[in-house]
Amino acid sequence: MKSTKIIYWTFTVLLSAFIVSGAILDILKGPDVLAFFKHLGYPDYFPQFIGVLKILGIAAILTPGIPKVKEWAYAGLAFDVTGALSSHLLNGDPPTIWMPAFIGLVLVTGSYLFYRKKLKLSLKITE
Question: Which residues contact 102 (CB under 8 A, 6 or more apart)?
């Protein structure tokens, strides 16, 4: 149980830092961010919209005691990073550009899988 918790928190802290740092840049909507999103074909309002949703998703994942909301937050973040990865790949971007989205997908997946494992272990203990 202890190693599962450590791995879960490692993935989750890295995921949180990764998503929140990107979300802050999205919300601030600087010229580089706008150019980046425009290259992918998204409208100018999209960075702020998705940035706020990313922060809400991480807040839900870090808040204890709301398992259904956490599931939805994980799904939303998975859709976000999968959409980013596919947008980059479909635009023909090189690996240096799409690799952060791939790393985000690995972090979301790792955090979610160990969240589920931690949840199952805690349910077995209480039975």
Answer: 85
Nearest to 29 by CA among 42, 17, 16: 42
Q: pLDDT by residue (tens digit) across 99-114?
A: 999 999 999 999 999 9
- pTM of model > 0.85: yes
Q: Give, as one character, the DSSP assignment of residue 1.
A: -
Contacts of 73 (CB under 8 A, 6+ apart): 56, 57, 58, 60, 61
Q: Which residue has the tokens 């709301």?
A: 66
Q: CA–CA separation, 105 vs 14, rounded Å? A: 12
Question: In 63-94, which ranges are continuous DSSP H helix?
Answer: 67-90
In the chain, the N- to C-terminal Cα span, in Å, equals 15
Task: Provide the token pair at 127.
Answer: 């039975």
Nearest by Cα to 83 from 108, 62, 118, 65: 108
